[in-house]
What we know:
Layout: H1 2-35, E1 41-45, H2 52-68, E2 72-76, H3 83-90, E3 98-103, H4 104-113, E4 125-134, E5 136-140, H5 149-158, E6 164-167, H6 173-185, E7 190-193, H7 197-206, E8 211-215, H8 216-224, E9 229-233, E10 260-267, H9 272-287, H10 289-297, E11 300-302, H11 307-328
Parallel strand pairs: 1-2, 1-3, 6-7, 6-8
Antiparallel strand pairs: 3-10, 4-10, 4-11, 5-8, 5-9
Amino acid sequence: MRKIKAALALAAALFAGLAAVAAHAQTAAPAQAEGYPTRPVTIIVPFAPGGSTDVLARVLANKLTKAWGQQVVVDNRTGAGGNVGANAVAKASPDGYTLGMGSIGTHAVNASLYASMPYDTVKDFAPITLVAEVGLLLVVHPSVPVNSVEELIAYAKANPGKLNYASGGNGASQHLAMELFKNMTGTEMAHIPYKGSGNAIGDLVGGQVQIMFGDMPLVLPYVQQGRLRALAFAGTKRSRAAPDIPTVDEAGVKGYAASAWYGLFAPAGTPAPIVDKVNAAVVKALAEPDTADFLMKQGAEAVGNTPAQFTAFQKREMDKWGKLIKVIGLRNE
């Protein structure tokens, strides 16, 4: 009888201990999020300074620094179409102090484009929110003797391979937008990939390359200055930032549509309360009038959604662009 009572007492003690551990686990994560952040936070940008990914990350970094009272810094890590920087996020400690600004390239396209990937696009990340969708503007250097999409198609067909088009890298939104255009119009242009769209646009303005589907926030100022010529907007409807510019569809390439998007990610395993806290802060920042107005004037639409909504969006994008890549036969080793 004594042995039975002793066993029961031991079992009760063990149960109480386990219950205490469980209770602690339930309260530890919220408590961890409540105090977060207690030190500087880094947002890794997988492209060079000056591109849309970088610009959006810096806008958020400034907003979050003010909101949290902790410095939020941007760290540009370029290479392999964004894979180097994205991999750094995937391999970082999942504590909320390393985040990543991903793009359509790093988090939708590259999984289908590259024969070998250093990270799993889905399993290695915790999506936080879709930050913004950025319109793409089809622009040419003034030396190109065309003033419309129709003239561009005719010129490209009469001069196959003569035009060089720029992009922010293999698999970047600018790259796929032009490949889709080529596929739908039967034209041929040579691809010149850069380490980030900022560098690509610099050479486009300088005349080293002739044409590009450029991120609206980056190319529109050059169009307004007369240093680039805009032919069409790649979205499904005209941009509020440049309502006089027709869509590619309106300009004659029926059914054409392409855009760029950028979202914030954390490493997989980051506690949900921290993901939720970052999400709330970013969504609030994007909804502030000065942020939304700044982005809208440059052709970017602030979004800000839930982690679940962003996850579903990312899956749809991976499916869509994966099919296109297969159809046109793109592949990077």
